[in-house]
Amino acid sequence: MSATGPGQSVLLLLDVAALLGEKGIDYAAIGALAASVYGTVRATVDADAIVSVPRAKLGDLEKSLRKSGFKADLRRGDPEDPIPALLAISDRHGNRVDLIAGLRGLDPEAFGRAITLTLSGSPLRIIGREDFISMKCFAGGPQDLADADEAYRSANAPIDIDLVRRLARRFGRPAADALERVLCA
């Protein structure tokens, strides 16, 4: 289902997700879209997803996206950046999707824990709750920690506390400490 105007980045993400699926590329929506699944609904002008693509294949993915009619801009991070690369995708309406290619500390099994929802009749993968909480603790900003807290507090199924702690530790001590503050609040 293609976007027909501005403010439809989720529809753009659905189109991008279909292309990723055709190419056999694992992905999971993160950011505000995942937050809305786990309890915090807020407006956003873009959609974010993390993808499992080797750095050497990012150029090929960028070309495929352009061939499909999207604008795509590959940006590579420096060695200290926790995000090795980002593929910024937009359409003619100004909708935007950021595909994050890797995240330092992300558990490679995160894609296997992603959940699949149906949105506008199309499947969409969303990062799993425990991975979402640990990623938000890693990001560490006030809104990120509020998102982590809401995802933890509003869970309608038990959260695997040992798993979320292990995931947060992968991101480093500050993320693990932030998680403990969320768990104890």
**Using only CA atoms, what is the Rg?**
16 Å
Which CATH class of the largest domain applies here?
Alpha Beta
**What's the helix count?**
8
This entry's quaternary arrangement is single chain
Alpha-beta classification: alpha+beta
Helix content: 40-55%
SSE order, one letter for each helix or strand: HEHEHEEEHEEHHHH
Major sheet summary line: 5 strands, mixed
CATH architecture of the largest domain: 2-Layer Sandwich
Describe this structure in words.
With 185 residues, the protein is an alpha+beta fold. The protein has 2 domains: 1-127, Beta Polymerase, domain 2 (2-Layer Sandwich); 128-185, no CATH class. Helices cover 44% and strands 21% of the residues. It contains 8 helices and 7 strands. The strands form 2 sheets. It has a 5-stranded mixed β-sheet with strand order 1-2-5-4-3. A hairpin with a 5-residue loop joins strand 4 (85-90) and strand 5 (96-101). Helix 5 packs parallel to helix 7 (161-171). The termini are far apart.
What does this entry show, briefly?
This protein is an alpha+beta fold and 185 residues long. The chain has helices at residues 9-22, 31-37, 58-67, 110-113, 129-139, 142-153, 161-171, 173-184; strands spanning 27-30, 46-51, 71-76, 85-90, 96-101, 115-119, 122-126.
